[in-house]
Amino acid sequence: MFGPLFAVTAAVFLGLISAVILKEASASTELSWSFIILIISVVVIVNGARFVIWGYIHRKHPISLSYPLGSIFFPLILIIGHFYYGDPISIPKIIGSIVITIGVALLVIEEAGDDV
Predict the structure, then answer these.
(1) 61 and 83 in contact (C-beta within 8 Å)?
(2) pLDDT for 66-116, tens place per residue?
(3) Do the Cβ atoms of 3 and 61 come closer than 8 Å?
(4) From residue 27, how far is each of 1, 24, 74, 109 by CA, in Å?
(5) pLDDT in tens, 12-38
(6) Which residues, in sequence order, are CB contacts of 82 under 8 Å at separation 6+?
(7) Which helix (H) or strand (E) holds 88?
(8) What sections of the chain are H helices per DSSP?
(9) What single DSSP character describes residue 68?
(10) Residue extents of the structural domains in the chain
(11) 77 neighbors 106 (Cβ within 8 angstroms)
């Protein structure tokens, strides 16, 4: 059970890195072609690594568990956006994040129960 959790965590972490890189690049005043090519290259490499990890995950673990685990990205990006970029958090966003987190937790608990 911890195999998919660890692998999905790595994929989600790479997704967060990619999102932050793109956010930072969009706010940059540096607009040279070399900077743009560098940012695009880094994002492609990071997302390529995510692609490989997701390929491994879907080959080795049930998609009914692994794919929903990836939705943890959304509450995490909400937290990063709020604390790092000052994005506002509304009650509907908080409720949505809680619903996502509870849903993922229920899936993990159910999968853990199936392994026993």
Answers:
(1) no
(2) 888 888 888 889 999 999 999 999 999 999 999 988 988 888 787 766 654
(3) yes
(4) 40, 5, 21, 40
(5) 999 999 999 999 898 888 788 898 899
(6) 88, 89
(7) none
(8) 2-27, 33-60, 63-69, 73-85, 91-115
(9) H
(10) 2-115
(11) no
CB 70: neighbour CB atoms within 10 A?
A: 17
Distance (Å) of CA 19 to CA 13, 40, 63:
10, 12, 24
Contact (CB, 8 A) for 12 and 49: no
Report the alpha-carbon distance of residue 8 to residue 45 in Å, rounded: 17
d(Cα 12, Cα 7) in Å, to the nearest integer?
9
Nearest to 16 by CA among 72, 67, 68, 55: 72
Work out the average pLDDT over 57-73: 83
- What is the pTM assigned to this prediction? 0.78
